[in-house]
Amino acid sequence: RSYRVAVAGATGAVGNMMIRVLEERGFPVEDLTLLASSRSVGRELTFRGRSIPVRELREDSFKGIDLALFSAGASVSRKFAPLAARDGCVVVDNSSAFRMDPKIPLVVPEVNAHALESHPGIIANPNCSTIQMVVALKPIQDAVGIRRIVVTTFQAVSGTGKKAVDELEAQVRDLAEGRQPRCKVYPYPIAFNCLPHIGAFLDNGYTEEEMKMVNETRKIFEDPQIRVCATTVRVPVYYGHSESVAVETRKPISVEEVRNLLERAPGVTVVDRPKENAYPMPIHAAGKDDTFVGRIRRDESVENGLALWVVSDNIRKGAATNAVQIAEVLVERGWLGF
Ligand code: A2P
Question: How large is the ipTM?
Fold first, then answer.
C-alpha cells in the first residue's frame, strides 16, 4: 500500500532534501502535501516530475495524512506536531523540540530501531552531529562498550539553513572583491573563519549543540554512564559535517578489529588508506547517504583509546535521510497508516 505524506518546512534546506530522498528511495507515497509558512504560498516544488503547490501550515493540515516529516524549527514542531499526532498522523520530527522527552523515541535506524516499538505519534530525529557519530560508534559500543568520548566537530553552514548557505557565498564574494563581509546569520564572518559557537551558550560553558551531543548519545545508546565532552565548531563548508572522535572503550579492542567491524556496519563506509591520501572529506561525503569513517588509529594517551575521523552529509544522513529511514522501518513493520 502507499501513504499520504506531508513535509512541514518543505521550502527549507532539510525539507527540500526530504522530498528528494522520498523520491530517490521510492518511498510508497500516494499523495504528497507540502507545507511551509504563508510566505511560501504560491511557490511550487517538484516531486516525481510533478509540480506540487506549497500550502500554508495550519492546525488542520494533517487531517487524513498518514506520515508527516517536520523540519520547520522547534517552535513550529512544538505547536503543530501534537496536533498532527492527535489527528492520527505519525510525525517524524527533525527539530530538537521532543528529543529528550522520555516518552518520545529518538531514533537512528542502524542503532536503535527497536525504540520505535512504542511511540505516542511523534518520533524524534536526532541532531545531525549525533547521528553520524552514533552510526560510527555503534559497532564499537556493542563489541567492547564505550566509557568516554571526546569529540570536536567541523560543521557545515547548511545545518543552520538555507540563509546560512547564502551568507557564506555572499561573504566569499564580498571578501574576494574587497568589501566588508555582511553578517546576518552568524555573529562573525564564517567565510575563511571557524566559529566555536553552535547554538546558545549555557551556564556550564558549553553550547546547546554540545549538550545535544552529550544527552542524545546517552539516550540513543541507552547508556546514561557514557561520558561525552563535545566542542562544536562551525566551519566554512557548505555540506558535510566532519568529526574528530576520541573514544575510550571499556574493554580492549585492536585497530584491526575496529576496522573490520566498521567495514561490516550498516550505513558506514570505511575510507582509510592514509598512505594513498584516502580519508573521508565533506567534498566526497556531500550528496551521499553513508557515514564515512577513516583515520582509524590508537589514542595512545589512554589505555583503551581509539581515534577516528567521521564525515557525513548533514542534510542527508544528518537529517532528511535518517527521517525517511525511520519512516521506512515503520512501513516495514506495518506500523504506519490507519
Ligand atoms: P518558509 O520558506 O515559508 O519560511 P531553513 O531551515 O532552511 O531556513 O527552512 C525552514 C523551513 O521552515 C522553511 O520551509 C520555512 O518556510 C519553514 N517555516 C519557518 N517558520 C515557519 C512557520 N511559522 N510556519 C510554517 N513553516 C515555517
Answer: 0.97
Which atom of ligand 1 sits closest to the CA of residue 15?
14
The tens digit of pLDDT for each residue in 146-193 reads 999 999 999 999 999 999 999 999 999 999 999 999 999 999 999 999
- Can you list the domains of the chain with their CATH numbers? 3-125+319-332 (3.40.50.720), 130-314 (3.30.360.10)
Residue nearest to atom 9 of ligand 1 (CA): 12
Determine what percent of the chain is predicted with pLDDT higher than 90.
99
* Per-residue DSSP letter, 113: G
Interatomic CA distance for residues 319 and 159, integer angstroms: 9
Distance between Cα 258 and ligand 1 center (Å):
41
Residues with CB under 6 A from ligand 1: 9-13, 15, 36-37, 39-40, 57, 72-73, 76, 161-163
Query: CA 112 to CA 99: how far, in whole Å?
Result: 14
In ligand 1, the atom with minimum distance to the C-alpha of 13 is 7
CA distance 7 to 52: 12
The residue with cell 544522513 is 317
Q: Atom 14 in ligand 1: which residue has the minimum CA distance?
A: 9
